[in-house]
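Can't paste images in this forum, so I'm doing it all in text. The chain is below; anyone willing to post the predicted structure tokens underneath?
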Amino acid sequence: MAVRHRLIRRAPERVWEVLSDPEQYADWVVGTSDAKPDEGSWPQLGASLRYEIKIGPLTLHNRTIVRRSEPLSVLELEADSGALGTARIAMELRPWGEDTLIILDEHPLRGAGGFLHNAVVETLQQARSRAMLSRLARLCEDDKPPAPDLSIGQEPLEA
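Text version of the structure:
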């Protein structure tokens, strides 16, 4: 089971805004491309996205469905990879001062993915989860003004 966490230096409202934008899905979910709304209104319960995953010469056509959505706090998804089965992707957003602690829990749910799950796959999943959280943080924090340079001997610039 791949459980990772990351402190995103933005309020939960900003993190939820990015998670709620189907056009940004492929920007933070590692391996996906060409994400498009399928059914419903993302990220409402039952809504889904369709997208591609390219693995070498193979292109897989996958679908992700919202299984639980509590704005600003919880988003749980089920990624359907066809013959490979499905995976549960749960994200919990916790206010942490002015920032957001996001906890990502991803693991096989049904089908071959659970049967094939082992230590090697778990290691790869941990790396993928770490990369996803890094991408998500970058998207959320991009419009944040840079911190002042407080190096020794330097005064912060006045606006």
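The first strand starts at residue 2 and ends at 8. The radius of gyration is 17 Å.
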